[in-house]
Amino acid sequence: MSQKKLDEPGLKNVSEFPIGTAVNINRLINDDALMSLQILNFNSITATSDMKMQSILPAENQFNWKKSDTILYYAKKHNQRVFGHNLIWHSSTPKWVEEKGNKDSLWLGEFMKDYIHKYVGRYKGKVAGWDVVNEAFESKGGAYRKTFWYNNLGKEYIANAFRYAHEADPDAVLFYNDFNIERDTLKLQAVLNMVKDFKKEGVPIHGIGFQMHIRMDTPDEVIAYSLKKAAETGLQIHLSEVDIIFNSHNDERLGGIENYSSITDEMKLAQEEKYKNLVLMYRRIVPKEQQFGITVWDFTDRDSWIKGFFNMKDWPTIYDEDLKPKPAYNGFLEGLKEKTKKK
Ligand code: 9MR
């Protein structure tokens, strides 16, 4: 294993709110260099995939708690908060659930209830918060995504998922999580309307997760506006899956548009600035008591999902391919350290 010298200060040590990262737990615990950086910087942990339905319940009645238990164990050992990602997501619904649910929506409603009760109940008091429903709106605009869950249960499945999670752990902080809501004001408005309805109906929602998979050309003013509107709900605000890319894409798998195939020093500095501004906006716009934290989605360019998913080169995170801190790391750090006016 490399004897990397850790001269960068840990992000978590200079932050007033939790700093998290998503990880693949097996990759993490089998890579000492990665693990020492994870322990140095983060006090919150999310699973990239290990806690999704596909992984927890791959076949009927066969709960697989191995990885989630390992995450809980790791987090306890290193004094980190566990954030649960996610309970209901169309992209991680096992085939067997779809096959059964498409034939019998009454079964599906009961299944969802049991699954959430069992899963959230198992980790009651141990998982601090959950992405209860993930990506229930179309990529663009304000329409509900016509997913397996929506088609079989109607939009009520969202409210019900929150109710069940709350029943299983009344202290867990429950989030609705989505992407593009920092830049697509129609989509953001749709989420805010849902939150308003939930509050009116007494549905227990406590937070909004901005995935924040952004690009260098996502305007900071638009991000600032969106954070402000969301913070006005009074809910917790989580930047839940942060990364910042140079190239672009159409939101679809393999849909990358590679304008840049290498990174220059100038681009690295621009990314430093972008990371810094993002952290500063979060600190300035979101009131302290609503700052649930900032979580990055993997923390090295080596491990990031972007290249594989969109099939393009990119440099989305704060550590490079060789696990060296990038200027982006410094930007994140500066954003945390810079004095902001008291609210
Ligand atoms: O990064 C995750 C990748 O490793 C998985 O293969 C994929 C499918 O489960 O999910 C990725 O994470 C997604 C997250 O769960 C929801 N928002 C978008 C993330 C990137 O696709």
Question: Secondary-structure blueprint of this entry?
Answer:
Blueprint: E1 19-23, H1 25-29, H2 32-41, E2 44-47, H3 53-56, H4 66-77, E3 81-88, H5 95-103, H6 105-122, E4 127-134, H7 148-153, H8 156-168, E5 173-178, H9 185-201, E6 207-210, E7 213-215, H10 220-231, E8 236-245, E9 248-249, E10 256-257, H11 265-285, E11 291-297, H12 306-310, H13 327-337
Parallel strand pairs: 1-2, 1-11, 2-3, 3-4, 4-5, 5-6, 6-8, 7-8, 8-11
Antiparallel strand pairs: 9-10
Helix pairs in contact: 5-6, 6-8, 10-11, 11-13
The structure holds ligand 9MR.
Can you tell me about this structure?
This protein is an alpha/beta fold and 343 residues long. It is built from 13 helices and eleven strands. Helices cover 42% and strands 17% of the residues. The strands form two sheets. Strands 1-2-3-4-5-6-8-11 form an eight-stranded parallel barrel, surrounded by five helices. It has a two-stranded antiparallel ribbon with strand order 9-10. Helix 10 links the parallel strand 7 and strand 8 (236-245). Helix 10 (220-231) packs parallel to helix 11. Residues 1-6 have low confidence and may be disordered. Ligand 9MR binds at residues 48-49, 52, 91-92, 134, 211, 241, 305, 309. Residues 48-49, 52, 91-92, 134, 211, 241, 305, 309 line the site of ligand 9MR.
